[in-house]
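Extended Data, record Integrase
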Amino acid sequence: MKKTKPRIVNIGERRKPTPNGVPGYLRVDTVHQGDMDRQKGGYHINILDEVTQFEIAGSVEKITESFLVPLLLKLINKFPFRVFEFHADNGSEYINRVVANMLNRLLIKLTKSRSRQTNDNAQVESKNGSVIRKWMGYGFIDQKHACLINKFYFDIFNEYLNFHRPCAFATEIEDGKGKIKKVYKQENYMTP
């Protein structure tokens, strides 16, 4: 009796991105919008630049090549700088020949997460909760609404996310005992 041998997929390099302070190293992840009565919900695609935190979101009905590749092209073209690297987890929606060929045509290197290194894509995973889930929620949203969600993302949300969302900057205050406390003062809130 022989065991089934795992299939080795030689698409993408298995390593953590090292941008060295240069923008253009993107992280990508998919957020599923729930199921209801055996019906699948839509999917949100979240792409984040590791250095500048510039973030673009989009939505697709299904994570098949016919839906995903045109949206990926549109999302990548929205970044205001040259893209060097595209890092995904090991999901088959990104680690396949169609996406790899598209990235090769754009001269973008594809990397994927290392095995047993759960923090390789942690940055975009945390943005899924703090950005996508905060605005879109956890409830079921039907696939047919992907076009309306994309209209919201591309007309309003992506611009707000990158240019108008307030960011808090901490001020460190030392008390009488020498303990340092971080305080977020109203005058330290700014937009990017």
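Summary. The chain is about 30% helix and 25% strand.
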